[in-house]
Write a structure and sequence with these properties.
Elements (H helix, E strand, L loop, with lengths): L15 E3 L4 E4 L4 H13 L1 H5 L11 H16 L4 E7 L2 E12 L2 E8 L8 H15 L4 E7 L3 H9 L3 E12 L3 E11 L3
Parallel strand pairs: 5-6
Antiparallel strand pairs: 1-2, 2-3, 3-4, 4-5, 6-8, 7-8
Helix pairs in contact: 1-3
């Protein structure tokens, strides 16, 4: 069923998005993709778990495969899409949009530690938001844990504005209970 606030079903959203240095591809829930994601998570677990609490539940390839299956099913239900971020055909992170409602959505992302600081996430974000706005989304939201300065900087550098601060509404392994910072960008500011 198509969300009544959307013009088209998400199955019509681009499956591949290319940038000068990256390729964003919808992640299929295959065994090979589950193994690739699991290996990346294991190699970067401490780094990723600091701000991404859900990694604590991903202990096996099968756990990751189930998560990928769930994310992939969200396309058919118009809830969101998960993209792998590939540089030179190597997975370096992921970016997804979700919480689709009223022509708005939320974006979440991560990169492996060694690829931070090269502008890859801003490049991936810019490409994805361009496609979202072409698809007639009107607003993109980021929910960032207070203290996650790199993520806040990405939001600010890419034109997102702080809309509200939700006191003690989140939890991150590296800081414990913390505020949620809601950043947003509108199609027509």
């Amino acid at each position: 069923m198509v969300n009544k606030f959307m013009i088209k079903p998400l199955s019509q959203f681009p499956q591949t998005i290319e940038t000068p240095r990256l390729v964003l591809r919808v992640v299929l829930p295959t065994q090979a993709n589950a193994e690739t994601f699991f290996n990346i998570i294991e190699q970067n677990r401490d780094y990723l778990e600091a701000w991404q609490g859900h990694f604590g539940a991903l202990h096996t390839v099968e756990d990751v495969k189930k998560k990928l299956e769930h994310r992939y099913s969200q396309i058919a239900s118009n809830e969101g899409i998960l993209f792998g971020i590939y540089k030179d055909d190597n997975l370096i992170g992921r970016i997804r949009f979700f919480n689709v409602k009223d022509k708005s959505c939320e974006i979440g992302y991560w990169l492996v530690k060694k690829e931070n600081g090269h502008g890859f996430m801003s490049e991936a974000l810019t490409a994805l938001e361009s496609e979202l706005f072409k698809f007639d989304f009107q607003k993109i939201i980021m929910d960032i844990d207070a203290g996650n300065i790199p993520s806040e900087n990405i939001a600010k550098r890419n034109g997102y504005k702080l809309e509200k601060r939700l006191p003690m509404a989140s939890w991150a392994k590296c800081v414990g209970k913390c505020d949620s910072l809601i950043y947003a960008k509108n199609k027509n500011p």
